[in-house]
Amino acid sequence: MRKKQTTIKRFLLVLIITSFNFYSGQAQTNDITDNEALKAVLAAKEAAEKTGVLVNIAVVDAGANLKSFIRMDDSFLGSIDVSIKKAKTARYFNIATGELGKLTQPGGIIYNIELSNGGLVTFPGGIPIKNKQGKIIGAIGVSGGTIEQDHAIATVGAKSILN
Amino acid sequence: MRKKQTTIKRFLLVLIITSFNFYSGQAQTNDITDNEALKAVLAAKEAAEKTGVLVNIAVVDAGANLKSFIRMDDSFLGSIDVSIKKAKTARYFNIATGELGKLTQPGGIIYNIELSNGGLVTFPGGIPIKNKQGKIIGAIGVSGGTIEQDHAIATVGAKSILN
Amino acid sequence: MRKKQTTIKRFLLVLIITSFNFYSGQAQTNDITDNEALKAVLAAKEAAEKTGVLVNIAVVDAGANLKSFIRMDDSFLGSIDVSIKKAKTARYFNIATGELGKLTQPGGIIYNIELSNGGLVTFPGGIPIKNKQGKIIGAIGVSGGTIEQDHAIATVGAKSILN
Amino acid sequence: MRKKQTTIKRFLLVLIITSFNFYSGQAQTNDITDNEALKAVLAAKEAAEKTGVLVNIAVVDAGANLKSFIRMDDSFLGSIDVSIKKAKTARYFNIATGELGKLTQPGGIIYNIELSNGGLVTFPGGIPIKNKQGKIIGAIGVSGGTIEQDHAIATVGAKSILN
C-alpha cells in the first residue's frame, strides 16, 4: 500500500514538473527566443574574432524569419545577403547548407534548387539550430571566411544556446 | 423497319448524352475544376500520409495559375515554393519536371532554363494532369520527400481525377 | 481530512487534463494545422457558393507561410495574389486588413506601408485566425467579391475552426 | 623661456592626443562599428522592454547596408522588413523617416518616392545615427509599436552610441 502511494506520488511529481516546463518554457521549446538568437550571434562573432575571420552572422527563427544579425567591420558587403540566405536555406530544408549542396550540383537529384524560394545558398555555412530536446527551432548562417571557417563559426553559434 | 427505328433511336440517345456531357462538363474538358483540383490535392495528401512522407502539394490550372494547395504539418518550409514551381513548370512545358531536368544540365539543349519564368524547378515531382480524353488541363507539384516519393505522390494526385 | 484529499484529487485532475491537452493538442495551440486550414478554406468556399460569389481563398500559418489555398472556377485570376497577400498582411500585423487600410491612406499614420514586405494588401478580406484560447494561429485572405463579401466570407472561414 | 617650452610641450601633447584619437578612432568617425551598432540595438531593445512594446530593430551603416538587427519575441512579422526599410530610408536621405513622409503625400514635392530603392518607408521610426562630431555614420529603424513609440525607441538607440 505504501509502495503504491509512493508510485502514485512519483507519477504525479513527473506530471507537475512536465506541466511546469510547459508553462514556463513553451516559447523556447518550439521557437528560438530573441535572447537565444542574440547569444548565438555573439558566440559566433567571438569565435570569428579569435580566428581573425571577418564575417556576417544571421539567425532566423522557426518560421525562417530574420531574428538577429550582426556584420563585423570590414567584412564583405556581399556576405550580408549570403549569410541570411544560408540561415533561411538551413531552416527551409532542416539541413546544413553544405549537405544540401552535394545534391544540387549538375547531375544531382535537386539540381538548381537554388533558384527557388527567392534564391537559396547551398554551400557550407548554414546550419539548423536545435534545442536541448533536439528539435529544430531556427537556423544560423555565416558568410565571409572560407566555407570551412564559416561552417565552424556557425557551429559554435548554434551550439552556444545549449549552455 | 422496326430495326431501323431502333437504330435511329440509339443514335439520337447517344447524341443527347454527348450533348449533355458537353454542356454540363465543358469546364472539365479544357481546364481543371476547383473540385478536381481539391480532389487531386487530397488524394496526394492521403498517399503521402500512408507512406509517412511530409509534403507540400500544389495544383495549377490550364493557365498555370495556382488552383489549390495544401502544406502538411511539419513539412519543409522551402517546399511551398518548390511544389508550386514544380506544378507551374510541368504545365509551362507540358512535361514531367524530371524529364525536363534531363535537358537542362550543363551541355544540355536547354541548359539553365530554370532561370526563366521567375524560376523553374526541373527535378521530379511535377507532372501534367490530363482529363479522360488525354488533354492536359493542369498540373500538380509535390515537394518534401525524396524525388521518387514526390513523383509517386504527384502521380496519385494527377490520376485521382479520372475516377 | 477527506475534504483535503478531495481538493488534492481535483487539483491533480486539472493537472492531468492540462498535461493531456499539452501532449495531444500542442500543434493546434500555437499554429494552425493542415486540417484546420483545409476546414477554413472549405467553409469559406461553401459560404461563397451560397451567396453566388466567385473567390480565391488563402490560409497562412503562424509564420505567415501559405498553408492551404483554393481558387473557385471563373474567379478573377488577379485574386490569387490578392487573397494570399491579404492573408499574409493579416498575420504580419495581427489585424483585419480593412482596419490596417484605415491607417495607410494619404495623411494616414502608416501611409504607403503597402510597399513593404514585397507588397501588402490593406483593404478588407484578410483576417487573423484565432484558436479557442484567442491566440492568433494563422490568417485567411479572400478576394474576388466586393470587399464586404470578401470580409464576410473570410470571417466564416476563420470561425469554422472553432466548431 | 620656460613659458615657451611649456607652450611647445602643450602643443605637442595636443598633437599626440589628436593623432592617437585619429588612428585609434578612425572607423568610428566615418562609419558605425559593429559594437556601436550592437550597442544601439540593445539600448533600443531595453527601452522597448521598459515600455512594454514589442519591436524589430535594425541598424544600417554609412553605406546603408544592414549592420545589426534584433526581433523581439512575439513582435509583428511584418515589422522585420519595415524596420530595415526605415533604417535604410533614414540613411538614403539623411533624414528622420517621419520628416520625409511629410513630403511624399499626394501633392507633395516627392510624391510616391516610396516606390524607389526597392521600397521605402516614410512614416516615423527611422532616424540617422550621428557620431560625436555630428557626422551621420548610419541609421536605425524601429517597427512594432505606435509611430510615436517607434520614433522614441529609435532615438534612444541612436543616442546610445554617444555615451
From TrEMBL, chains A, B, C, D:
Keywords: Signal. SUPFAM superfamilies: GlcG-like (SSF143744). Gene3D superfamilies: Haem-degrading domain (3.30.450.150). InterPro entries: GlcG_carb_metab_protein (IPR052517), PduO/GlcC-like (IPR005624), PduO/GlcC-like_sf (IPR038084). This is PduO protein. Residues 1-27 form the signal peptide. It comes from the Bacteria. The lineage of its organism: Bacteria, Pseudomonadati, Bacteroidota, Flavobacteriia, Flavobacteriales. Pfam families: HbpS-like (PF03928). It comes from Wenyingzhuangia fucanilytica.
